[in-house]
Amino acid sequence: MERPQISLPLALLAVLLLASTTTTAESRLLHRIQHRGRFPVPAVSSVCRRAEFPRLCQSFVPDVRTVTAESMIEATVWAAVSGAKAAKALADALMDSPTTGSEVKGGIDVCRQNFDMLVLDLQKGLENIKGAGSHDELMSNLSAALSDIDSCDESFNEAPGLKSPVSHLTSNLRKLALNSLSLADHLN
């Protein structure tokens, strides 16, 4: 039996919708936090005040059982892994699209490679959080993750007027990486 063919525009739309669900879910959590009419519990406040983006940090509270710096870093890194995989899927779809220009494809190809490295660096960071490695190794892996994101964005800065079709995703990934780094910095 032959598999049904899905048109490229339909596949691209599906990937875009999948990628936007991370942003939508994040927005919903932030909205709930902002409008619940009470301050977060003290443990959350003491941990998340150290984050670069405290509200984003607080949005992960429902995902953790015990609020510690380690649990908040872990939740943030898992969100970044998920976001990196969605960004890679979008980059793959854009590379396969005949409507993507050659200059954009050059930048997207750099991003695809960096999204793969980002996932690996974040996974190493997760291992470090769980005790495999030192605090310095954790900081190194999280810093490498941030560099992976920056390298993707820089690939589009080289050509004047070229706009990254994944900039909304790299912006969110950067916030997650910065939060992970700032929280991890206070572990020692």
From TrEMBL:
Coiled coil location: none
Pfam families, per the entry: PMEI
Signal peptide range in chain numbering: 1-25
Stored InterPro entries: Invertase/methylesterase_inhib, Pectinesterase_inhib_dom, PME_Inhibitor
Single GO molecular function: enzyme inhibitor activity
The entry's keywords: Signal
Domain Pectinesterase inhibitor: start-end pairs: 39-183
Protein known as: Uncharacterized protein LOC105046260
